[in-house]
Amino acid sequence: MSTNHTGTPLPSVSPPPVGSTAVAKRPFSLRDKIGYMFGDFGNDFTFILQSTFFLIFYTNVMGISAAHVGTLLFAARILDAFTDIGSGRLVDTLRPGRSGRFKPWLLRIMIPVAGASFLMFSPFLQDGSYGMRLAWMVVTYVLWGSVFYTLINIPYGSMASVISNKAGERASLSVFRSLGATLANLAISVVLPLIVFVQIDGQSELSGTRMMLAAAGCGVLAIVCYLMCFANVEERITTPPKPKEERMGFAKTMGTLVTNRALTGMIASSLFMLVAFMTLGTIMPFLFNEYFNDGQLLSAVNFVGLAPTLLMVPVAARLAGAVGKKEIGMVGLLLAVVAGLVLFVVRTDSPYFFMFGYAVLMLGVACLNILIWAFITDVIDFQETRTGERNDATVYATYSWARKLGQAVAGGLTGWALTWIGYVSTAGEHIIQTDQVLDGIYSLATLLPALLLLVSLLALIFWYPLSKKRVDENVATLAAKHESQSSHS
Whole-angstrom Cα distance, residue 379 to residue 257? Predict the structure, then answer.
């Protein structure tokens, strides 16, 4: 009969203890990295679809007020504080399945999340009363985002911590996850607009029927991607839950998370980075259409913004292994801050010079963004060294909600800032913005992200404690602990 770390006997039907190798596992390989990449492909076939088309679908097809859509998106972030952390706690406390703790959730939720995404973009009640259309939007969005997407994304994100306990391999998983997100972003943002927008009487309009069919196609592709992830990823570190009487209660667990400097430091740094990143993406159409007076260049600048992530993929994991994730993030953020400030001071009239500076800025952001998922696995290790419990999914869920909050803040910040500088909505009319407004738009695209990234850099330097040396020490400590548990089982 095996024992847990306190020496209390465990029932013979329990899974092997942490670090056990009772069932032989194949070595970590490229197969795991590609499989994990497909998991984020699956997520983004519904997530990027929602973030790109939800607002315009419900305003232009379903006739819902933009204010009502915005209210839903903001209110859902509050709801997600409960569903995200609740889902994380659920995953952490349930007994693992035959294929692991996290992988089974891919099979359980892949069809519901794809189905909810399809319903969310289905114009079935297009001709119904406003109340019916509003209710349809609220119910389908909450069902997709706050329930099913949460129940598949939390286990998927937490899975990286049990695929491998080696820092370099975890960094490579983060890189491949970021690669999957970038490729999905390119696919949806480049291909789908050509399908779902149609010309009617010389005007471009979003087709509700085509949007529904696109959502169905993306749902099918999401299911295929989840299956690819399930088939190719191996959970190697078993983490059976402690008996209920030995487990920390929910309130105490949350207390340990609040005092976890690694978690709060990572959240602070990544939150400001994310707000800067999303603010940049939102302000770019205004900058190129109004300030540079060439909206067609938006396609080029969007590619320039994503290209650094693709360039970082081959080298990010090696750099993180040699230098450290925190250290790479600090250098990258410093580069991004300098690039943003230089663009602000120069105040160029050349869109091509701006694109060059923007590429440098986004390269700096990519240094942190592409490795951020590996930061989480380090934070989970840090949590175990502090408390004796890993709380993989609860830690990930806390971070996930913080990211959603950042997305909501970024969405509101850009709209509020445009109002502050006096931007006048064109509403189909040809309105020339004042020079003061144009200068304000330029500042929002350069100075504002530079300041946000500076806060992110300071949080990483002075708040986040996990340097390469500290991460290596934690990994060695836990490896010894798990080996000791395995030898006494």
Answer: 10
pLDDT, tens digit (0-9, with 9 covering 90-100), for 422-471: 876 544 455 677 888 889 989 999 999 999 999 999 999 999 999 999 98
Sign of CA dihedral 184, 185, 186, 187: positive
Cα 236 to Cα 25: distance, rounded to the nearest angstrom: 6
| Torsion over CA: 327, 330, 332, 335 (sign) | negative
First to last CA, the chain: 7
- Contact at 8 Å (CB) between 375 and 241? no
Token pair belonging to 2: 């095996």
- CA dist., res. 276 & res. 486, Å (int): 45
Contact 212, 123 (CB under 8 A): yes
Q: What is the model's pLDDT at position 488? A: 59
Residue entry with tokens 């209210």: 71
- H or E segment and range at residue 205: strand 203-206
Half-sphere exposure of 18 (CA within 13 A, CB side): 22
pLDDT tens, 261-301? 888 898 899 889 988 987 887 788 778 877 888 766 777 88
Instruction: Render pLDDT for 209-229 as a digit per residue (tens, 0 to 9).
Output: 999 999 999 999 999 999 999
For the chain, count helices (H), then strands (E).
17, 2
Burial call 89-128: b when 16+ CB within 10 Å, e when fewer = bbbbeeebeeebbbbbbbeebbebbbbbbbbbbbbeeeee
H/E element holding 199?
strand 197-200
From residue 349, how far is each of 256, 288, 290, 343 by CA, in Å?
51, 11, 12, 11
Whole-prediction pTM value?
A: 0.68
What does each C-alpha distance from 91 to 115, 214, 263 come to in angstroms? Answer: 22, 32, 19
Q: Among residues 318, 406, 316, 324, which one has the least CA distance to residue 364?
A: 316
Tokens 């105490």 belong to: 252
